[in-house]
What does this fold into?
Amino acid sequence: MNMTDKELSHDISAAQYDEKDFFLTLQSFDGVIDYIEQRCTQYGCDARNTYRIVTASSEILANIESYAYESGGNIQIRTCVCENTIRIVFIDDGAPFDPFSVQEPEVSAPLSEREPGGLGIYIVRSLMDSVSYRYENGQNVLTIEKSFQADE
It folds into this structure.
């Protein structure tokens, strides 16, 4: 689903976000994922949806690390929760890239007939309730949202 932040399911002001900056490289990748997983746990997200969020976040971070920067770069992660919905915003100042500009892969075709690439954003879109992208002030801003059941 390609949506603007205004169309996302909840209106969350910037003051409600938890923010953390990272220098993203292959070596720091796990630390960023650990941070996102910790935020999900702190927000009370159930294990199944935490797994979905971590999987989608891994795909997003892998794309940023591979395509936005040649040898690592700055990324900011903003997280918040509102009414059992987690929103995560990935902000980087790497090369501009709109993931919605890529044609969706033909997943029903046999593997031997598929074009390489495009599965990462397909996975993100299939796991999340909403995904949006914008390029603003020289930065890529990718936002994901996922509703969850509170862990008991």
